[in-house]
Description:
With about 290 residues, the chain is of the alpha/beta class.
Amino acid sequence: MNVSAIPLQAAPEIGPAQVRTLFLSDIHLGTRGCQAEKLLGFLRHYEADIIYLVGDIVDGWQLKSGWYWPRAHNDVVQKLLRRARKGARVFYIPGNHDEFLRGFYGTHFGGIEVVESAIHAAADGRRYLIIHGDLFDVVIRHARWLALLGNTGYDLAIAVNTNFNAIRRLFGLPYWSLSQWIKLKVKKAVNFIGEFERALAGEARRNKVDGVICGHIHHAVIRDENDLRYVNCGDWVESCTAVVEHFDGRLEIIDWTGRPSATGDDMADVFDPIPSAEIATLILQQSNSQAARD
């Protein structure tokens, strides 16, 4: 038998990985540090029945000081809206950078529901409190001007980090977050992360749940301590991390740092052509409305 005569069949296309729930936080759309193309690659790979947007999805602080909204950022919004239209339950829990949405609890934007917090019932019976976490950060609560000042320095660190990693790529070195290293060193010096985690654990106990899932400090982790589970989703500026729940209730951190980004051709086939200006107007109107109330 002539083996070469056997017709070759194309390998079947592998579809998205199905998970029960996606938890995404600290995307910071509207900033130059946002790695939207990486996130689009992640969303192309994972589909879920439930999606929690755990705060700082849109960076209203940055957008009010200078408008930046490239196509990839628009495509992220479109991708999430498309998931909602296809039947996924999508919950948006605002953080401090998108606090302009806190006046819209209980409303829907294209099928995405804005809520103050949520209780998520996992497949294994555990119950999790879902909150962004900024209300447990003493700097945000009591010295907002200091937080804004720190945000400016953080943006500068992200800009330096971008050039730093461009040089690393020339030498074939992997991505390394200079800004995250600096931030963690400083916060470790004041024991900030430990205090933040303990505060969130205390809130979970007050709500009589099995754990808490949050964002805010850009430090992805799943940690069991005593009778509680602390979960932080990470971010899409420095670490490109998210948390997924599998159908057995198991939680897993997905690190997308070295994984593929979505390409322009990929995005053109997937997203609906709603112009960026429409979304920009919505964000600015809500942001100005919140500022007027303040």
